[in-house]
Amino acid sequence: MKRLLTFFMTLIVLNIFTIGISNNQIALASGKKVVVIDPGHGTGGNREYELQSPDSSITKIKDGGGTQGVVTGVPEYVVTLKVAEKLKTLLEQKNYTVIMTKTQESEAPGNIERAEVGNNNNADLVIRIHCDGMDNQSMTGASMLVPAPIGYAKDISSISAQYGQTILNDLISSAGMNNRGVVQRSDLTGFNWSKVPVVLVEMGFMSNPGEDRLLSDDSYQNKLVQGLCNGIVHSLNKYELGWNQNSEGWWYCTDPDKGYYYTANNGWKYIDGQWYIFNSAGYALQSTWYTDPSNSHKYYLDSNCMRVNGEKDKPKWVNINDSYYGFNEEGQLYVNCKTPDGYNVNENGVASN
Ligand SMILES: [Zn+2]
After folding, report:
1. Topology of domain 2-15+23-27+242-345, per CATH?
2. Where are the Cell wall-binding repeats (predicted)?
3. Residue 69: is its pLDDT beyond 80?
């Protein structure tokens, strides 16, 4: 167990130093990603003005108050807070750290203030929750707004667009509404002041009678939340450069952008002082024998996926399924010989004396 822990720690340290220490890596080390949920609008809105972007002199109202249901009369801020609370619960069950920009319907903070919550917490993602409204009552469907590369958002525009597309796809497949696509916006204060990835979901039209009723329906809200949660997981739980683990085992990513990783085609790989071999699906062999087709020698990969190696003239003896096997300094199993330390081993490598 201690060895395993050491191995885990090594992996984390390896990861940090391979890509440099970034906020993401700190999140990896602590094991928790931070999601900020920003429920749109508040009672009565907020009539103060604020700068639309740090690099512009345009001012905009802090909160126009949002829309409301054409048949239910339910205000947008009631729906957005309800969905946000449900999303928080679901994400926390999946081990995310969740921070809300507001928790009361009556709160109507400005958009800079909301963006600062994401910035100050180094959020991995800020998701802003909204509903649409239009004069045209036939308009339906969800869209995902993402920041244009202006203001602070220059650096997070492209990753936000990727996350936005992923989350929208999962939302549509969970709730089944019309897909209005991903839309880049340069005029949203809450985007332009964000230094961390941010998306804004318009979950449907409160100006459409059908969607208005659905948006206040408990089970439909659950579908929305399930879709948003799936999309967030798919966005944030991508693999990292270096070692990764999932339920199938350990694998080693060499280029996260292109999705490259080691497979059986790469042969033996020497990583951080140890030898590893990967199967055709890309998982490191673990607690198993391996016969190298290039030299017919047998090797053993231990529970940490590391090749068992002896030292020169000093075999490493390992108990595997109640028999002892000796390995040389190249990790090869001694067979049909007398080992340098004086044991006779048979053709299966089992010591006989
Ligand atoms: Zn809104």
Report:
1. left handed beta-beta-3-solenoid (2.10.270)
2. 265-284
3. yes
